[in-house]
Design a protein that fits this description.
Layout (H helix, E strand, L loop, with lengths): L12 H9 L11 H6 L6 H16 L1 H6 L9 H13 L5 H4 L7 H14 L11 H8 L27 E4 L2 H5 L2 H13 L4 E2 L11 H5 L6 H14 L4 E4 L2 H9 L1 H5 L6 E4 H10 L12 E4 L3 H4 L6 H8 L5 E3 L22 H17 L4 E4 L2 H11 L7 E4 H8 L1
Parallel strand pairs: 1-2, 1-3, 3-4, 5-6, 5-7, 7-8
Helix pairs in contact: 3-5, 5-7, 10-20, 15-17, 18-19
Length: 403
């Protein structure tokens, strides 16, 4: 039996236990955003786990051990393709795991199961398969020129040091698709008076998250080592970033692919801003008499546990009234952009984004505050042609306008 025939090659012992632990209770279906907009149990978290357990049983179970594994290709390809569609239609938001009665960490499990499908040439789906070549060519998943990474949004009056204790990573989605967000980051960093440094537009390549989440891991080690060594050469002690997906992979996976502890700490921009506000390096000078509602990004809340810092910033703004979504914090609903699913399952993504927009309008918020470039892009897209409209602003964009 070859590696291609084994369905557990990339799974940790913990993940094997998790697969066995699923009781098919269906509690997670109440929180799955894909279930909310499709209502199809055939692509639900328990069904994905059930199907994958069948693959393991057929190739590594007792019968296979006693009588030998089935011949190559014995598993029905149609069943494999059904599983591939189900696991890639998922936004990998982790809401199912957050509410799992036996504690399955699905936000980490789904990418590993995707990797198993990539190994067989069955995944990823559609344009997701173009990510490695695009990143190899241009350093970003959008396949846009590296030279254009910063030039259309970086503020002219903000100075970047050659070397500094603080490094700033803009990220691909912010740099190419969500300019107000990264411009706000740079303005806040500049206003703090803290020197910070950046890599050149050619050297600040993709953090690796799009490859990780789609199960295409071959390039990750080289990509991550390249970035870590580049920032190390800049002498940084802290790397600041606003993209939740970037912060997530930097915190959780960069040390694994780098092979040891990172030579610097990872911080989300809201953590930096809260500290700067508390120690007087940033001062809010304007009042904002608005009712704000904040959307927790999946990989910032469930991913790395940053929930209070954005709210602390918003509460520090004079005149602001902060309201909450019914599902917020660790239970926040995915905006629809997660897991690279938006590149293939566009209608699902728009429907999820509109659920968030509708609730924000129903709660009479004046403005929807976000802190994720994928949310920023998807929410604006979801609002096109929608009968409900609300002003959408990134949290650093808002803070920068009030300093």
């Amino acid at each position: 039996m070859t590696d291609r025939d084994i369905f557990t090659r990339y799974l940790s012992p913990q993940q094997l236990i998790e697969l066995e632990a699923c009781t098919q209770c269906g509690e997670c279906l109440k929180y799955c955003p894909v279930q909310t907009v499709t209502g199809r149990p055939s692509i639900s978290p328990p069904e994905k786990i059930r199907m994958f357990r069948e693959f393991i049983k057929a190739t590594s179970g007792l019968k296979a051990r006693l009588f030998g594994p089935p011949e190559a290709g014995a598993i029905d390809r149609a069943l494999l393709e059904d599983f591939v569609k189900a696991v890639y239609e998922c936004t990998a938001c982790g809401a199912c795991g957050q509410n799992c009665t036996v504690g399955i960490f699905t936000q980490r499990l789904w990418p590993v199961l995707r990797r198993e499908m990539v190994k067989r040439g069955l995944g990823p789906i559609g344009p997701q398969a173009n990510l490695p070549k695009a990143i190899e060519r241009t350093g970003n998943p959008y396949d846009k020129p590296a030279a254009d990474r910063f030039n259309s949004w970086f503020p002219e009056n903000v100075r970047v040091s050659e070397k500094a204790d603080i490094g700033y990573y803009a990220g691909c989605t912010g740099a190419y698709e969500s300019h107000p967000m990264v411009k706000g980051d740079a303005l806040v960093l500049g206003s703090s008076g803290e020197p910070f440094t950046m890599l050149s537009p050619e050297d600040e390549v993709c953090c690796g998250f799009p490859l990780f989440i789609t199960g295409q891991h071959d390039m990750l080690e080289d990509l991550i080592k390249r970035l870590v060594e580049a920032y190390k050469s800049k002498g940084i002690k802290v790397l600041v970033c606003s993209c939740p997906c970037c912060v997530n992979i930097m915190s959780r996976d960069w040390p694994l692919f780098y092979g040891r502890e990172l030579p610097f700490k990872i911080r989300h921009i809201t953590q930096f801003a809260v500290d700067a506000l508390n120690n007087g390096k940033l001062t809010i000078k304007k009042e904002l008499r608005e009712r704000l509602i904040y959307h927790d990004p999946c990989y910032l809340s469930r991913g790395v546990g940053i929930i209070e810092e954005p709210r602390s910033i918003l509460r520090s703004i004079p005149g602001v009234s902060l309201v909450e979504f019914d599902l917020h914090g660790f239970n926040s609903r995915c905006c629809g952009a997660g897991g690279a699913a938006r590149k293939v399952f566009h209608d699902n993504a728009v429907a999820m984004g509109r659920l968030t927009i509708d609730e924000a309008v129903e709660k009479k918020a004046d403005r929807l505050i976000i802190s994720c470039p994928a949310c920023h892009a998807k929410m604006h897209e979801a609002m096109q042609g929608h009968d409900r409209q609300i002003r959408i602003t990134d949290i650093m964009e808002l803070l920068a306008s009030l300093l």
